[in-house]
Specification:
With 390 residues, the chain is of the alpha/beta class. It has 14 helices and ten strands. Strand 1, helix 2 and strand 2 form a beta-alpha-beta unit. The longest helix has 17 residues.
C-alpha cells in the first residue's frame, strides 16, 4: 500500500466525480502496506527513459495476480500480435513490501532483474523514485496516456505530474466474504467477532489493515491521533495472538477463501468478482463503516532492459477499447476515459457495476489509503510489523 501525517489527494474532485467515467476515482496511495523506506536527502536525479527506439524484443512485466484479461484473445496476446514484442507476464507481486525486499538488492546495483515494468502501489513507487530506483517517463511515447488518463488521477500527492507512474487500476479495500460460511456480514468489526475465530484473514498491508481497524473503532483514519493508531495496531495484535486472525496475507487470501479456510478476508474489490465466477458464495461486501480507496501504477525500474517496449505497452493499454477488455475482466476502477460508454454498449450491467464505476453514495464512508511518514509513522510501522511476526 513510510509514515507522515495523513494526506488526502484531490479528494473533492474524487468525491464529486465517482459516478462519472470522466472522473472515476482519485485515490491517494495504493493497495499498500507498511514500509519504513525513506528517500535519501541527497538522492541522485532519477534517470530518464530513453526517448524513442525500436519497439521489439522481449518485455518482462511483474504484476499482481488476476489483474488482466487472460488467454489467446486477451490484452497481452493482442499486444504481442500488434507489436511483435514477446511479453513475459509474471504474477510475482503478492505484497508491496515483500516485492520490494526481493527487488531492492538488484535495484541498488542498477539492475531490474530483467523487468521493464513493475506495477506497485503509488506510495511505494514514490519511495522507490526517491531512492533513484524508478525512471522518469517520456510522454512523447505516451500519447494515449496524455489524452485518456482521467482528470481525477492526473495529479496525486505521490507523483503530482505523473513523471514516473502511469495508473494501472484503482479500487477499494473491503470485506470478501464466503456468504455460505459467514452470512449477514456487513461490518469491519465482524473480523473480530469470536464466532469467526480462526477463519479470518487480514492484509500484511499496513495502509489497509490498520485504517480499516480504526474505522471499526469508530475513528476516522484521516483524523486519528498517534495513540489511536497505536491502539488499532494493538487490537490487531491481540486478535492475532488469540487465534482470531488465521493469518496475514497479500493476494494469497484468495486460496483461503476458495478452500473455505477463511470465511471473511480483508481484501481487494476486483478479486471478489473473479472468484465469484467459480463460487457464487464469494462476495465483495462494502462495510457499513466504509472502505479504503487506492490505486496501483505501472513504473519502469532503473536498469530496465527494454524501456521502448515498456512505454509502448503503457500506451497500448490506454486505448479505451483495450482498457474496456481489461476492466470487464478485472472489475477494478478503470483509469481510462471512454470505457464506460464502450461497456454500456457491450453489457449495460457492466456500466452499472459499482466496483468499476462506484457512485458517491456507494463510497460515502470510504477514505484514502494514507501516505505516512515521520516519527508517528515509524512507530506505527514498527508496531504493526511486530504484530505480523507474532
Amino acid at each position: 500500500m513510510g509514515p507522515e501525517r495523513l494526506k488526502r489527494a484531490l479528494s473533492p474532485q474524487l468525491l464529486g466525480a465517482l459516478g462519472v467515467l470522466a472522473a472515476a476515482l482519485l485515490l491517494a496511495a495504493g493497495c499498500g502496506g507498511g514500509s519504513g523506506i525513506e528517500a535519501s536527502a541527497n538522492q541522485e536525479p532519477a534517470p530518464e527513459v530513453n526517448a524513442g527506439g525500436p519497439v521489439e524484443g522481449t518485455l518482462t512485466i511483474s504484476q499482481w495476480p488476476l489483474y488482466i484479461d487472460p488467454g489467446k484473445h486477451g490484452t497481452v496476446a493482442q499486444f504481442e500480435g500488434d507489436s511483435g514484442v514477446n511479453v513475459k507476464w509474471i504474477e510475482d507481486i503478492n505484497d508491496n513490501n515483500e516485492f520490494f525486499g526481493k527487488m531492492q538488492p538488484l535495484l541498488a546495483r542498477g539492475e531490474s532483474g530483467g523487468r521493464s515494468i513493475v506495477t506497485l502501489s503509488d506510495w511505494l513507487a514514490k519511495k522507490m523514485y526517491g531512492l533513484g530506483y524508478m525512471q522518469k517517463l517520456d510522454y512523447a511515447q505516451l500519447p494515449n496516456v496524455r489524452k485518456n488518463l482521467i482528470p481525477a488521477l492526473r495529479h496525486p500527492a505521490s507523483d503530482p505530474n505523473r513523471e514516473f507512474t502511469v495508473p494501472w487500476q484503482a479500487g477499494m479495500t473491503g470485506l470478501i466474504v464466503r456468504t455460505d460460511l459467514a452470512p449477514g456480514v456487513n461490518s469491519i468489526c465482524d473480523l473480530f467477532d469470536p464466532k469467526y475465530k480462526g477463519r479470518v484473514t487480514m492484509l500484511t498491508e499496513l495502509r489497509d489493515s490498520v485504517p480499516m481497524t480504526l474505522k471499526c473503532m469508530g475513528i476516522d483514519p484521516e483524523k486519528a491521533t498517534r495513540d489511536q493508531w497505536m491502539a488499532a495496531v494493538e487490537k490487531i495484535k491481540d486478535a492475532a495472538e488469540s487465534g482470531q486472525i488465521r493469518r496475514f496475507t497479500g493476494n494469497d487470501y484468495i486460496g483461503d477463501l476458495v478452500k473455505g479456510d477463511a470465511a471473511i478476508s480483508l481484501g481487494w474489490s476486483g478479486d471478489a468478482v473473479q472468484l465469484q465466477k467459480d463460487n457464487p458464495h464469494i462476495k465483495f461486501v462494502m462495510p457499513k463503516e466504509g472502505c479504503m480507496l487506492w490505486s496501483t501504477s505501472m513504473e519502469i525500474p532503473a536498469g530496465a532492459p527494454n524501456p521502448a517496449a515498456a512505454e509502448a505497452f503503457m500506451n497500448y493499454v490506454y486505448d479505451p477499447k483495450v482498457q474496456a477488455d481489461i476492466a470487464e475482466y478485472v472489475s477494478y476502477v478503470t483509469p481510462v476515459a471512454g470505457v464506460k460508454e464502450i461497456l454500456a454498449k457491450r453489457d449495460p450491467a457492466l456500466a452499472k457495476n459499482q466496483l468499476i464505476f462506484p457512485s458517491p453514495a456507494y463510497t460515502k464512508n470510504c477514505s484514502f489509503e494514507p501516505v505516512l511518514g515521520g516519527k508517528i509513522g515509524d512507530e506505527v510501522t514498527k508496531s504493526f510489523e511486530s504484530a505480523l511476526l507474532g
